[in-house]
Structures are given as structure tokens and as C-alpha cells.
Design a protein that fits this description.
By secondary structure, the chain is an alpha+beta fold. It has three domains: 108 residues; 65 residues, SH3 type barrels; 85 residues, Alpha-Beta Plaits. The chain is 61% helix and 17% strand. The chain is built from 13 helices and eight strands. The strands form two sheets. It has a five-stranded antiparallel sheet. A three-stranded antiparallel sheet has the order 6-8-7.
Length: 336
């Protein structure tokens, strides 16, 4: 009774010590390399690693059977299930850490933000597909440990073709979204972080899965769209090549507006604005009506968020400038 109990306690202690030791090593590596997220990701492998070690030691020593003098077939089978499941869990965590290391390495060798977003999107989908494959294989391995499942294995393989055809017909929509997700990831049409417009809604791509895409709208709402939408319908991608955009606004003013002074004021304001990227700007009369002139101002910004903020700020400033210095420029209804 003493030696089986000692073996069980030794296995538990060895498992806890190994997990603690690996975590301490990874913690020091993470502190030494704070810019590398792989070490923080690997620290999440501590629990599945401990389960793998403990179940492997229990299978090798079998202290439970010797402690209770009982048939260990059921106990051994349960420990085997834990081992297989924990190996699958550990594989998924290691895969995520490896892909995070690849992305971190890529971010250090390129300065192109669009390429980084493309690789991030592709690696995210690779991680999801890889995790799905690992869990499917793990589930199959768990089922094959039961005698009943091995007995019916031959008949299942014989009917797999018919089942596959029926499942394909029944899951056309799901399969369509699956392949659409792969197409989006590797065709570089839309990426995580892109600003897109669909059906009049502007948003930033926050998440791409194998079945749906999440857009964060300007008011912090989330719009969930099937990924098949992005391979079958047109949409606007404002940041596919260059995140910089041209902001523009229209002002309806009186014919007496001093356009030259307004142009000079816009130049002065943009020179002191952090939102303007310094590439280009203009102000010109784009149209006239019997009672007003239409003045169009354009200016560039570094990204869609800065573009929207710059447009609002310039409109507010120009109207305030005309109100304070040239009130006769504001439109009015003439009754004479």
C-alpha cells in the first residue's frame, strides 16, 4: 500500500514541478524578450502539458490498481482518454504559439502595414483550420479507444461516401462559407483591420472566421456578415492598398464669399492640424446656384478615422471663421 501511494504522490509532484519549472523558464524568456508574444502564448500550455505528463506517468506506473487491488481496465481507459484529449489540447496551444511567433517575426522584417494585415488574416484562418483538424483527429482517436467503435468501423467506412454526399447537399451554405473564408484569406481582398463599406455601412474588419466576418461600426456596434457575401457581392475596401484617404466637404455660401481668404485660412489651419498628413489639399468653387456658391475643400489624411475627424474639424473651423470674420458670406434667403 505504501509503494503505490508513494508512486502516485511522486507522479503528482513530478507533474507539478515540471509545469512550474517550464513556466518559470518561459516567464524569464518573456521578460527578456517583451516584443516576442510567443513566450506568453507558450505559458498557456502549462495545464495541458501537466495533464499529458500526469496521464503518461499513471499509464506507465499504474499505482491506482496496486492501491485498490482492482481490475484497472476501466481506470486505464479513462487515463488514456485524458492523455489523448490533453495531447490534442497541447497541440492546439503550441500551434497558436507557433503562428504568433511567425506573425511577430514578419512584423519585424516588413514596414508595409497592408502586408502585415494580410499575413495576420491568413495565419488566423490557418490557426482555426489547424485547431479544427486537431480536434477532429483527437475526437476520432478518443472514439477508436472504445471496442464498439472499432467493431463498426468497417461499416462506417463503407458508407462514408454516401454520408459525404448527403452531408454535402445538406451543408451547402456552411461549406460555401468555409471555402469563401479560405478564398478571402489567401486572395487578399479583405483583411483584419481594413475599413470597408457595404450596404452603406462603414466599419473596420475586426474578426474573420471560416463562416462569418465581424465589422466594428463607427458607433461601436458589431455587424456580423457571412463571408460568402464578400465573394459574391461588391463592396468598398478603403485600405486595401493604402490607408491614406482624401477627405472632402462642401459648403453652400453667399456669392460675396472671399474665396481667396477662405483658401488661405484652410491652408493655415491644416498646417497646424495633427490630422492632416501633409500630402495634398485644395479649396475651389465647384458649382453655383442663383442664391449660393458651392465651395469644395479637400485634404488628405493617414487613415479612415483621421479622415472622418479631419472633415468634421475643417467644416466646423471654416464656418466659425466665416461667422467671425466674414458674416456676409453665410447663405441667406433674399426677399428683395
Amino acid at each position: 500500500m505504501f509503494w503505490p501511494l508513494a508512486s502516485l504522490l511522486t507522479a503528482l509532484f513530478a507533474t507539478l514541478f515540471a509545469g512550474w519549472l517550464v513556466d518559470q523558464i518561459l516567464q524569464r524568456l518573456a521578460a527578456r524578450h517583451p516584443d516576442a508574444p510567443v513566450w506568453a502564448q507558450l505559458r498557456r500550455c502549462r495545464v495541458p502539458l501537466q495533464l499529458v505528463l500526469l496521464s503518461a506517468l499513471l499509464l506507465a506506473t499504474r499505482p491506482v490498481r496496486r492501491m485498490f487491488h482492482t481490475d484497472d481496465d476501466a481506470i486505464r481507459h479513462g487515463v488514456l482518454l485524458v492523455l489523448i484529449g490533453s495531447v490534442g489540447w497541447l497541440t492546439v496551444r503550441v500551434l497558436a504559439a507557433a503562428l504568433a511567433a511567425v506573425l511577430s517575426r514578419y512584423e519585424t522584417v516588413t514596414e508595409d502595414a497592408s502586408r502585415v494585415r494580410r499575413v495576420r488574416t491568413q495565419l488566423d484562418l490557418v490557426r482555426r483550420v489547424g485547431a479544427a483538424v486537431v480536434w477532429v483527429v483527437t475526437g476520432g482517436a478518443l472514439l477508436l479507444t472504445f471496442d464498439a467503435m472499432r467493431t463498426v468501423g468497417t461499416s462506417l467506412l463503407a458508407s462514408a461516401g454516401i454520408i459525404g454526399i448527403i452531408a454535402g447537399i445538406a451543408a451547402q451554405s456552411a461549406l460555401g462559407n468555409f471555402f469563401a473564408g479560405l478564398q478571402i484569406a489567401f486572395s487578399d481582398t479583405v483583411r483584419i483591420g481594413d475599413t470597408v463599406v457595404l450596404d452603406g455601412q462603414q466599419g473596420t474588419v475586426e474578426e474573420i472566421t471560416l463562416s462569418y466576418l465581424v465589422l466594428r461600426l463607427w458607433d461601436e456596434r458589431r455587424l456580423v456578415v457571412p463571408v460568402s457575401y464578400f465573394v459574391s457581392k461588391p463592396y468598398e475596401n478603403w485600405t486595401r492598398r493604402d490607408p491614406g484617404l482624401l477627405a472632402w466637404l462642401l459648403l453652400h455660401l453667399d456669392h460675396r464669399t472671399p474665396v481667396g481668404a477662405l483658401r488661405a485660412e484652410l491652408e493655415r489651419y491644416l498646417a497646424g492640424s495633427e490630422l492632416w498628413d501633409g500630402r495634398d489639399w485644395s479649396l475651389a468653387v465647384s458649382d453655383t446656384t442663383p442664391s449660393t456658391v458651392v465651395v469644395r475643400a479637400t485634404m488628405t489624411a493617414r487613415d479612415p478615422d483621421a479622415t472622418a475627424a479631419l472633415r468634421l474639424a475643417v467644416r466646423e473651423h471654416l464656418l466659425a471663421y466665416l461667422r467671425d470674420h466674414h458674416p456676409e458670406s453665410l447663405p441667406r434667403v433674399r426677399t428683395e
